[in-house]
Amino acid sequence: IGEWTVSGARFPLEMARDADVGRNSLLIYQLTSNPSFSLSMKEKPGGKKQPELVLERPLDREKQSSIDLVLTAVDSGDPVRSGTVQVRINVTDLNDNPPVFSKSVYEARVAENLPAGSVVLRVRATDADVGSNGRVSYSFGNVPDVVSSLFAIDSESGEIRTAGPLDFEEENKYVFGLEATDGGGLTDHCEVQIDITDENDNVPEITILSLSSPVPEDAPAGTVVALVNVNDPDSGENGQVSCSLSGEAPLSIVASSGGSYKVLVLAKALDREEAAFHELVLRASDGGDPARTGTARIRVTVLDANDNAPVFSQAEYTVRVPEDVPVGSVLITVTATDADEGPNGHVKYS
């Protein structure tokens, strides 16, 4: 009997046979008490009565899938004789129960850059029906294309796996809906929240915003030489960057108020005569484990200042000449040099 059968439905039962005649063969039927069923007698041609099972209220297979009754036929003889037969009623399923997810919201935390095919989580929905009515399949709801490109769901097991590379810097949280459908078309829905955790997968980036080169050698200490931007898109300690300089340049780093900008200033006066240019390497290291380091090379040329006086090759020249030396004769050649360059190093005599 289907659980969709309405109250009042009748089901004929087998008639008993009694070989006696007369009163000894007059049969009375009895049925074990059950709130869902009653017994009715239907008159048949020839005066015989056929027992019928009458459904008193709709059945619910999920509460009771089968019901056992005993039908007894009693004759009217003396002594009374009876016969019994067992009546087993199997309740046929109706798709009257939708699938039900075990949770309304499923949450998971996964690291970015998981390999494709990695299991993220598993959802589960149950259906109280049986057969195809209780067989559940899983699918995405109305989700954005980015979700279906990054995640895949097994329609039978409910496992959600990665289908593409996750990137914390692009998106750190995904929220989307899932649908469970049984064989009869009934559905249930749940929400999935996947938080992406950061990995130290980005090298700090150094961008030189401005560079003053050449720098006059008489520029005072504290003069700004370069302005650089240091950026690491990672978060937390993975994105906290510290900078250092290597090389012999007399420069130091000063952090700006913004935090991501660094100012390179002169730590002491330059001397072009000692070094006409300076090459240094700016290193930016993050706080990840292991740390990642980005570098940038900076070349600073020193511009000459007229900070050196000419110097004679000798402090004093002594020349002995005869008194009759002709006018215009060269008596001596003196030499002076200047460590500066260009016009600053061009020497005139007087």
From TrEMBL:
GO terms for biological process: homophilic cell adhesion via plasma membrane adhesion molecules. It comes from the Eukaryota. SUPFAM superfamilies: Cadherin-like (SSF49313). It is a single-pass type I membrane protein. Keywords: Calcium, Cell adhesion, Cell membrane, Glycoprotein, Membrane, Repeat, Signal, Transmembrane, Transmembrane helix. One of its GO terms (molecular function) is calcium ion binding. It is found in: Cell membrane. InterPro entries: Cadherin-like_dom, Cadherin-like_sf, Cadherin_CS, Protocadherin/Cadherin-CA. The keyword Transmembrane helix applies. Coiled coil: none annotated. This is PCDGD protein. It comes from Molothrus ater (Brown-headed cowbird).
